[in-house]
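Encode chain A's predicted structure.
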Amino acid sequence: MIGHRENEAGDRTAGTLLEIACDESGSDGENLTGGNTDVFAHAGVCVSAAAAAGAVREIRDRIRSPASEYKATHLLREKHRSVLEWLPAPGGPLHGRAHVHLTEKAFFVVDRVVDLLLEDPVAAVVLFRAGRRDLGVDGWARFLRAANELLRVRGGEPGASVAGFFGTVDQLRGAHAGTPAARVLGRLAARRDRAEAYRTERPDGPDVRIPVLNPLLPAIVSTAAYWSAGGRRPVRLVHDRQNLLTPERIAWIEETARRGGICLEEVRLVVAREDPRVQLADFLAGIARKVASDELNGCGDPALAVLLRPYVDRASVWGDPRSAVALGLDTANPPLDTDR
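Encoded structure for chain A:
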C-alpha cells in the first residue's frame, strides 16, 4: 500500500508551508455555453513527490497501458473500474490528501452576468433555478449564449454583444412576463449602462489581463483558501503550465488571495509530466469533472459520487440543487423561493 500519509502531522501544523500540486479539467476558455464540457474542475493534492511517484507507478502496474502519459480517461474506462475506485477510496493514495473545486459552467455564466449588472447573488440563484422552467429549453439556451457573448473579452464586436444580450433579454421577458425569471430579466434590462461600461473598459485584444468568464483563476484562489485553513497556514501552489497563467495573472491571483486573508506564498508553474504530484491532481480533476457532469445530467454513478463527496470544496460554484445533494453541496446554495 502506498504511504500516502507520510509527514501528514507535519504538513498540517499551523505555520508550516504546504506545497499543493494542482491541475484542472474541463477548460474551454471563455466559451462556457458552447464548449465540450459543462463542468470545470480544479484539484489540489498534498502528497510528497516520493508518495506521488509510488502511486503513479502502482496505477501503471494496475492498468498496464502502453501510453507514455496517463490521463484520467485511462482510469475512467470500465475495465479499470477497480483502479478508479481505489484512487480516492479510504486507504487509497488520495484519501485525506486532496481536494477539488467544481464549477457548473452555466451557473457561473449567470452568476457573473448578474454580478456585473446587479451585484445581487440571490438574484443569480433565482434566475438560474427558474430560467429553464420559465423560459423553456430554447429560451434559456438563448439567454446563456447571449450572456456568454456579453462577458467574453475576445472575439466579436463589443457593441454587438451588448445589443445582442439586451435584445434577447427584452424578447424573453416579454414572452414570459410575470414569471420569476422574467422579473430578474427586467432588472437586468434596466442596467444597460453597466454592460456598456464593461465592454468599453475591457476591449478585445491581447492586453486583456483578467478574463471575468474563465473559471480557472477564481478556482485557484479557492484552492489556496481551502489549504491555507483560513489564513493560518502558508501555501505554495505548484500548478501545471497553462497559457492563461501569465505573470500578470499569477500576480492577480496572489494579490487577490492576500486581500482575502489567504496565506498564498507563491504560484509556481511546472510541466505536469515531470511532476507526479501534478499527475495525481490531473487524475482527480478529470475524475471529478466526469462524475459531477454525470450527476448534473441525471446519469450519475452513486458509488463514484459517494467516493467523490469528501473531496468536493463546499465553496464550489454550483447552482443545480438536485446534483448538489449528490455531490455533497446541498448547503452551498440553500433552497430559495423562486416566486419572489
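The longest strand covers residues 18-25.
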